[in-house]
Specification:
The complex is a heterotrimer. By secondary structure, chain A is of the alpha/beta class. Chain A is about 35% helix and about 25% strand. Chain A has helices at about 45-50, 70-75, 95-105, 110-125, 140-150, 170-185, 195-200, 220-225, 230-240, and strands spanning about 5-15, 15-30, 30-35, 60-65, 65, 80, 155-160, 185-190, 205-210, 210-215. In chain A, helix 3 (about 95-105) crosses helix 4. In chain B, helix 2 runs antiparallel to helix 6 (about 165-195) and helix 9 (about 245-270) runs parallel beside helix 13 (about 335-360). The chains are: A alpha/beta, B alpha/beta, C alpha/beta. Chains in contact: A-C, B-C. At the B-C interface, helix 2, helix 4, strand 4, helix 5 and strand 5 of B face helix 2, helix 4, helix 5, strand 4 and helix 6 of C.
């Protein structure tokens, strides 16, 4: 098995508060890995350490073959990231955002042009090419942000609550995009608190109070907990949670 | 009322959590008092003097010695011709050159060549130097019996030590209160507008007016604390007399602080982003206060147009009144003109911004 | 390097599209240069003088006429008695009161000593000080004239002449205009970068940059370069306005001036970005920057000379970069000094430029 993310005893403390408490797991190439947990369970903090945005307090981790403690800048060449807060430039146009991030990841000028046309066609965004990002509806912005995150063909893409605040139809479209990306061989690491989305993942981990309390395929987790939906699994685990949302 | 208290507590928490801003808010007045009180002065401590004399005779030698002995002067060099002087002046190595006439004994003539880039400093330097020369000449002159000596006595009223701090303390107060009350209030309201939390607050059962008041209370408290700090420092450190009555001064300051809060509220009702609120406040509040209020530059030397403009700047009236009360010993009753203008401005601004606030948000 | 191009493109587009910034960068210098020279003047003029003439003789009239003829003073109507004179000061009608003692003419003729009393309102120390100094000089000249009248050959009347170099008309505005240009660079060149990175933090866009392989120096340099250009544009605008409006052209070389201006712009944008990097909210960065601006504007000799400060304050001043730019700009503008005379200041400025630019790169943390 070829694991692209491998984490052992990863821990992050802020003062006395242990946000992430000795977690260990690994993610296989091409997998859609769901990183679940209630708000405040430590999902985002853990993900930020994997992306090189936050320094681990202790523990080891490898992402795309690089050490998260020492080689975090090398990791960044190989990953895409879409944060919880929408973080494209609202005062730039759609094509300018694509161009900027393409350029930042070292895609050359001609290739950027080519891929931009392709991307806009796929998204049916041709008319919005020259629109300012701030004028787009939230669902469109999120699709665009995802496309930008995988524009440079990373081997892993990290998605932090990518579908927060949009309607179910748009969420479904968004997951179709995720599947399409996974088919191209991109590993998907996605946090969510929508339990129906958990069903779409190959494997899920569930974080409670900074620890990973369960990790398996949705089907096996459901049978283990004697539940019919992931929601029930989640509630069974969250019942013991000490942290308030 | 409980809800109001909760709102005020929330605002205080916002402020106290931001340690750096808090620190600057509390330290800024102290730093400014120290800078203005001790660091800024136009006094001349030392004049770098170049001496040019083609022929050294006794009178010249004595005069040069006199300058040498005077601790206000440092002689940077003696030259036979005026040629090297130009370079010294241009490089800033000398402030002034004193050139003695060729036939000094029979026809005493002296030329002072002074770096006049700063005209005020230059005039003072010329004054000092010429008094030294005059005095020396008078002494070397053979005293005639019936010669009368005319002396002048100088008295500096109100500020006998010529301390500039006397002037600046009211100015600092005018600036600090605008900074804290107007700038901070406007930013903190606009911030909630920008982040969308203002709508959440407005959706609560609390009346909008209380939301606004809860934003103002903490800054009012901080301003009052600053007022105390400044007055204490001014009194203990700078010996500013505050002869016009401390109670009156506090009342006047309170009016001005409330005026500043109203100004902050007004800005927040017309502006939508923090950046605009900040830059706008700096352009329309800070700079005018620093420049047009008479804090640093005397208003009466400005052109008439600017003097009229300065009339609408609240800080001008506050600083004028505070100066009279702190330094000249006038009482609140005696500065009734300034005090009533300030009160009038406060009422108008408060009414205007509350009306604006209701229209835009409430 | 290709990456830098994309980042620069972004910064310029964001700047141009901002609703406020481009207007600010053009309008602010114009406003400042139009208004400030009239405001920021400590020129001592219109010193109001009230004469209390207790002598009322030909000689005392001659003295009063001489004071009035200097054209320096704004003569107020004569009042009777020192009390009335002091009243003039407290009501603000007069800045200075001069009291001529009773029997001055008689005493001078009979060779007795005479003492004149000058009282100045020293609340405005500059006006009180310079005004009364000037008055004393006039009286001294007057006394010398009296000596000359009596044929006293040794009297030094007319023997003392003064040559005012570099600013012969003693125009205070010429002294202040270079300082105003510096204030412009401090405010715009410092505050805008101070708000820049922290605003990306508040909006959240910085995340997307931090998670990318962009190098620290690439990102910071792309932020700095637009401010360097902007600083030079603002400075040039101010320079042109100083020439068009006030007829003030530098006596020295423009090249020297620009060399210093570029260095100083680099310093200020570095300071701004460092503040921005260390702040978590725009409010915070604004206040920290404001603190520095106050320090820079007050402690660097813009309004009061560094040489007049106490020793401890001079030490602080020597650690503040604007101090050196002020010295350079004023020397070149008014005295026509060149790099040879100002190399020390240039060295300091260049040192600060390197220090703050490196500081800006190092203080930017991609990983928290």
């Amino acid at each position: 098995m070829d694991s692209v993310i491998k984490v052992e005893e990863l821990t992050k403390r802020f003062g006395n508060f242990t946000a992430v408490d000795h977690i260990s797991f690994s993610v296989q190439r091409g997998e859609i890995f769901g990183f679940l947990g209630a708000n405040g369970a430590g999902k985002t903090t853990a993900m930020r350490m994997l992306c090189g945005l936050s320094r681990p307090t202790s523990g080891r981790g490898m992402v795309a073959g690089y050490d998260i403690e020492t080689q975090y800048e090398d990791i960044k060449n190989n990953i895409g990231y879409m944060s919880q807060r929408f973080s494209l430039y609202e005062d730039l146009k759609v094509w300018e955002n694509i161009r900027l991030f393409g350029g930042i990841y070292g895609v050359d000028e001609k290739e950027i042009k080519h891929r931009t046309d392709e991307l806009l066609a796929e998204l049916h965004f041709e008319k919005e090419r020259n629109a300012y990002v701030k004028s787009l509806p939230l669902g469109w912005k999120q699709k665009l942000a995802f496309s930008v995150a995988i524009f440079h063909r990373p081997s892993i893409v990290f998605l932090d609550e990518p579908t927060g605040g949009v309607d179910p139809a748009t969420r479904r479209q968004f997951w179709e995009m995720i599947y399409a990306a996974a088919e191209q061989g991109i590993t998907i690491f996605v946090t969510t608190h929508y339990m129906d989305e958990a069903e779409y993942c190959n494997r899920v981990s569930i974080m409670v109070d900074g620890r990973i309390d369960a990790l398996d395929t949705p089907r096996r987790l459901k049978s283990e907990f004697g539940a019919t939906t992931m929601d029930e699994v989640f509630r069974a685990l969250a019942r013991h949670a000490g942290r308030k949302e | 009322m409980d809800v109001f208290a909760a709102f005020v507590r929330k605002e205080f928490l916002h402020i106290f959590r931001d340690k750096r801003t808090m620190l600057i808010l509390l330290v800024m007045p102290v730093v400014m008092i120290v800078i203005f009180g001790f660091a800024l002065s136009n006094e001349i401590n030392n004049i770098n003097l170049a001496v040019v004399s083609s022929q050294r005779n006794e009178t010249v030698r004595q005069l040069v010695e006199r300058f040498d002995a005077n601790h206000y002067f440092t002689i940077v060099g003696e030259y036979a011709t005026a040629e090297p002087v130009e370079h010294l002046l241009r490089a800033g190595k000398a402030d002034m050159a004193i050139v003695f006439g060729t036939d000094f004994d029979r026809q005493p003539s002296v030329q002072l060549i002074v770096d006049a880039s700063n005209p005020n400093i230059a005039s003072n330097e010329v004054f000092y130097t010429s008094s030294v020369i005059r005095k020396a000449m008078a002494e070397t002159r053979p005293a005639t019996q019936e010669e009368a000596v005319v002396t002048t006595h100088l008295r500096m009223l109100y500020n006998p030590q010529m301390r500039s701090s006397y002037n600046f303390v009211p100015g600092i107060m005018g600036l600090i209160f605008i900074l804290i009350s107007a700038l901070m209030t406007s930013i903190s309201i606009v911030r909630e507008k920008e982040q969308g939390t203002m709508e959440v607050l407005l959706a609560s059962p609390v009346r909008p007016i209380y939301i606004i008041l809860s934003k103002m209370v903490p800054y009012l408290v901080i301003s009052c604390f600053n007022l105390l700090t400044i007055l204490l420092l001014a009194y203990l450190l700078l010996d500013v007399p505050v002869t016009g009555g401390i109670a009156g001064l506090c009342i006047l300051s309170l009016v001005y602080i409330i005026l500043s809060l109203a100004l902050g509220l007004f800005i927040s009702t017309v502006v939508n982003t923090q950046a605009v609120a900040m830059l706008g406040s700096v352009m329309t509040l800070m700079l005018p206060v620093m420049l047009l209020s008479g804090m640093i530059f005397p208003i009466e030397s400005m052109p008439k147009v600017l003097q009229y403009i300065s009339d609408v700047i609240p800080a001008k009236w506050y600083i004028m009144a505070a100066r009279k009360m702190m330094i000249e010993g006038q009482t609140l009753a005696q500065v009734y003109v300034e005090a009533s203008i300030l009160t009038g401005m406060t009422v108008v601004l408060m009414a205007l911004s509350l009306k604006n606030f209701k229209n835009r948000l409430g | 390097m290709a990456r830098m191009g994309f980042l620069l493109e972004k910064e310029f587009k964001q700047f141009i599209r901002n609703a406020l910034l481009p207007k600010l960068v053009i309008m602010f210098p114009i406003l400042v240069m139009l208004i400030m020279p009239w405001v920021a003047t400590m020129e001592v003029k219109n010193v109001a003088v009230t004469v209390v003439d207790n002598d009322r003789t030909q000689l005392s009239h001659r003295l009063v006429d001489k004071i009035a003829a200097s054209g320096y003073f704004d003569m107020q109507p004569l009042v009777a008695g020192y009390r009335a004179g002091e009243q003039d000061i407290s009501t603000g009608r007069a800045d200075i009161v001069i009291e001529i003692p009773q029997g001055m003419e008689r005493n001078i003729e009979s060779g007795q000593n005479v003492a004149l009393q000058i009282s100045a309102n020293a609340v405005d120390g500059m006006k009180g000080g310079i005004g009364s100094n000037y008055l004393v000089s006039i009286i001294n000249d007057f006394v010398a004239e009296l000596g000359a009248d009596r044929g006293d050959e040794t009297a030094p009347a007319g023997a003392l002449s003064v040559l005012y170099l570099y600013n012969p008309t003693l125009n205070y505005r010429f002294f202040m205009i270079p300082a105003l240009m510096i204030i412009l660079v401090i405010t715009i060149g410092g505050f805008l970068p101070a708000l820049n990175i922290v605003s990306e933090k508040e909006i959240g866009t910085i995340e997307q940059i931090n998670v990318s392989p962009v190098r620290k120096w690439e990102f910071i340099l792309a932020k700095l370069i637009p401010y360097w250009i902007m600083g030079v544009v603002i400075f040039s605008l101010a320079l042109l306005l100083a020439y068009w409006i006030y007829g003030l052209a530098p006596a020295g070389s423009l090249l020297t001036i620009y060399a210093a201006a570029v260095l100083f712009t680099i310093v200020m944008s570095g300071v701004g970005l460092i503040v921005s990097n260390y702040s978590s909210t725009m409010q915070q960065s604004m206040f920290i920057m404001f603190f520095f601006a106050v320090l820079f504007i007050l402690m660097c000799g813009l309004f009061t000379p560094v040489a007049s400060m106490p020793a401890w304050a001079q030490v602080i001043a020597s650690l503040l970069p604007p101090r050196y730019f002020i010295e350079i700009l004023r020397s070149v503008y008014l005295k026509g000094s060149g790099i040879a005379e100002l190399y020390e200041q240039f060295l300091f400025l260049a040192g600060f430029a390197v220090l703050f630019s490196v500081g800006a790169v190092l203080s930017y943390q991609k990983r928290g």
